[in-house]
Amino acid sequence: MHSFTTDAARSLPGPGWLAERRAVAAERFAAANPPTSAEEEWRYSAIADFDLAAYQLAGVEEPFPQDGAWAGVDAANGAVAAVLDIADGRIVASRGLDELSKQGVSAGPLVDASDGAEVLGSVADGASDYFTVLNDAFAGCPILVDIPAGVAVEGVIAVRHHAGAAGVATFPRLVVRVGSNGSAKVLDMQRSAGSALVVPVVELDVGQAAWLGYVNLQQHDHRTTQIAAHTARVERDAALVAASVALGGGYARTRTDTRLVGRGASGDLLSAYFGSGDQILDFRTYQDHAAPDTTSNLLYKGAVGDSARSVYTGLIRVRPDARGTNAFQTNRNLKLSEDAWAESVPNLEIENNDVRCSHASAVGPVDPDQVFYLESRGVPTPVAERLIVAGFFDEVIDGLPVRAVEGAAREALALKLNQMLKAAA
Amino acid sequence: MSTLVIEGLRASVAGREILTGVDLEVAAGEVHAVMGPNGSGKSTLAHVVAGRGGYDVLDGSVRLDGTELLGMPAWRRAEAGLFLAMQYPTEVPGVSLLDMLTESVCTPEGAAVGEQMRSEASRIGLDEQFLQRPVNVDLSGGERKRNEALQLGVLKPAFAVIDELDSGLDVDALRLVAGRIEEATEHDGLGVLAITHYSRVFAHLRPDSVHVFAGGRIQESGGSELADELEAEGYERWTGAVPQPDSDADATPFTDPFGDPFADLLT
User: Fold this and answer.
1) How far, in Å, are A146, A186, A420 from residue A204 at the CA level?
2) Scanning every residue of chain A, which has its alpha carbon at the shortest distance from the alpha carbon of B51?
3) Is A375 close to B84, i.e. CB distance below 8 A?
4) Per-residue pLDDT, B200
5) Secondary structure of B92-128 as H, E, C letters
6) Do B95 and A374 touch (CB under 8 A)?
7) pLDDT-derived band of residue B248, with 50, 70 and 90 as boundaries?
8) What residues contact residue A70 under an 8 Å CB cut-off, 6+ apart?
9) Distance, in angstroms, between B198 CA and closest chain A CA?
10) Are B258 and A377 a contacting pair at CB < 8 A?
11) In chain A, which residue's Cα lies nearest the Cα of B78?
12) Candidate from A367, A378, A394 with C-beta closest to B104
């Protein structure tokens, strides 16, 4: 028996409306059947090995990682305007918020917003599943980053999540709302310290003609299980550029739902992921075109080494009235060892004739011709492989909408690659 | 004085013997031309000497100043002083020329690689903008050939195996690139093994010796007069006279699996 009961949900702090919302979600959760790998959504996943009873709600006080431990996203980084630190669902520190508030921008507990009750779930409820409902029931302190209409935030707003010790479950909830004609760059960092369970839900609400750049940098401990849902709604003439760099986790799953609901909306979706050891990285993407003249462009690139596995399944859906849709989906995977394994399953579901759609996927080793070319110039084999794999990710890293994290992402990828090559040598 | 000595070299691909006993000696500063028809195995010779995977070496040796190269990984051969200028240089997306050359064991620690690249680029007429691109990506055939010559200029090998230097190069570019290589033979003592189908390259890169390559080995060696004869009469004298490497008389000419798939269409 697990401890994620309705009573436990009710005992969390917050206003009455939130307690009620949690209780309803906890009831739904109690009545729901856990997913199994027989379902298409969970095919190739590690859900069969998942046991919720192995975790308890956060309660252990863990030291928050020092400022310098956050891959360059720290006080020394001038591009970062504000930082919000969240440990096991509680805000533990913040800076730069006063300056932002002069522009009417807020970043903090969602319950502080006058319309918090309407905002929470306004995007994610359209894509709910077993784990998003669990997050609804147990998110301790939902965070709202709120950019009013017409406001352009120059610097990066960074939210740094840290999940604590072994056996602890946390449910980070981040809502980003950009009002019409506003623009912002949000960096969502995820780290953990042990065999924790992290079930994050992210809601990105991009208003009319607004622009949002969102980067999720996931560097969980290799013993951590993450089951994340990133959901977005993009309104008329608005643009979302959402990227994830996924490096950590024992089993780390991210479901990404992008709904283009207004005419002329666009979504650029990028991911770089790298699995080593016995990691399983699992991505499910959904590009939902619900309005005319919408554009989505997805590029996911991954590498797996050692005995790591990756799964990518993606669906482009073009609804009947979404004429003039442009939708693209590309997933490329490098298999760096014999025992590594990558699955790639693209899908299209098109209900309108006036569209341009394409999808491409590939799984293969590092091109031996490329390795030989570098070797024939005197580049040692492991160095050649390192250069080529790093270069493989360039296309994604170059496209990250938050430039401040570019160096950190490159370094994190290189570090992981070096560790793997060193271990193999 | 450096020498590259190839002795009794035999190699096969997928069980088929392509090199049937190659003997060749190149001294520092010399240019040796290896000329042969399509399918004679001359590109295979370049690849086996440089250490490309996918070939089985059956017998023989390749020594650079007494050091046996066979059995070494390709980069160790480069370290020993060998350079391969490819017929169709490979695109390497995401890897910059600067990073590649900086990471080469042939580059001295702390060398001003970027500066050398720019200096070499101007000598062979390669626009500096191409130095910023990932290796060979979005470069034309001719630009790639110039890029090979640029790298040769920076890495300063003792010996270069140059596979079909003239393919993709127009007359002006060929003059610059071949001229740069000839200069390296004169000033740096570079030894060259130039594998070629046509003799037009010899107008700019004068061979000390010409070797006719057919049936997986050298059939005849001589001076540049041999190239003139080949130009006038073709390879028939040698291809007709020698048994094909495969015992099956109807066997089609060998196509190198790592060669360009459209090579036949270009000739």
Assistant:
1) 10, 10, 34
2) A376
3) no
4) 82
5) CCCCEHHHHHHHCCCCCCCCCHHHHHHHHHHHCCCCH
6) yes
7) very low
8) A158, A160, A189, A191
9) 25
10) no
11) A378
12) A378
pLDDT, tens digit (0-9, with 9 covering 90-100), for A371-412: 999 999 999 998 999 999 999 999 999 999 998 889 889 989
Token readout for A151 is 């406001």
Cβ–Cβ gap B93/A394 under 8 Å? yes
Q: Which of B181, B139, B174, B140 is nearest to B160 (CA)?
A: B181
Q: What is the mean pLDDT of residues B231-260?
A: 62
Give the other-Cβ count within 10 Å of B219's Cβ: 18
The verdict on B89 touching A (C-beta cutoff 8 Å) is yes
Residue A312: partners with Cβ closer than 8 Å, 6 or more residues away: A283, A285, A300, A302, A331, A333, A342, A343, A344, A345, A361
Q: Which range of residues forms the domain containing residue B21?
A: 3-95+157-258
Closest-CA distance, B79 to chain A, in angstroms, reads 6
Phi first, then psi: give them for residue B115, nearest 5 degrees: -65, -45
**Predicted TM-score of the model (pTM):** 0.88
Identify the residue among A299, A332, A377, A396 best suited for mutation to test binding to B, counting B beta carbons within 10 A and taking the highest: A377
In a domain, B85, yes or no: yes
CB atoms within 10 A of CB A360: 12
Q: What is the CATH number of the domain that holds B202?
A: 3.40.50.300
What is the total count of domains within chain B?
A: 1
Helix, strand, coil shares, percent, chain A, to 5: 25, 40, 35
Cα gap A393→A410, rounded to integer Å:
8
Give the tokens for residue B207: 């061979």
Minimal CA separation from A166 to chain B, in Å: 39
A310 close to A282: Cβ distance less than 8 angstroms: yes
Question: Can you tell me which residue has the tokens 């060929």?
Answer: B174
**Does residue B50 fall inside a structural domain?**
yes
Domain residues of chain A, as ranges? 6-367
Residue B144 lies in a domain: no
| Cβ atoms < 10 Å from Cβ of A54 | 13
**DSSP code at position A420:** H
Range of lowest pLDDT (A80-89, A414-423, B40-49): A414-423
Asked whether A179 and A149 are in contact (CB, 8 A), the reply is yes
Distance of CA B204 to the CA centre of its chain: 16
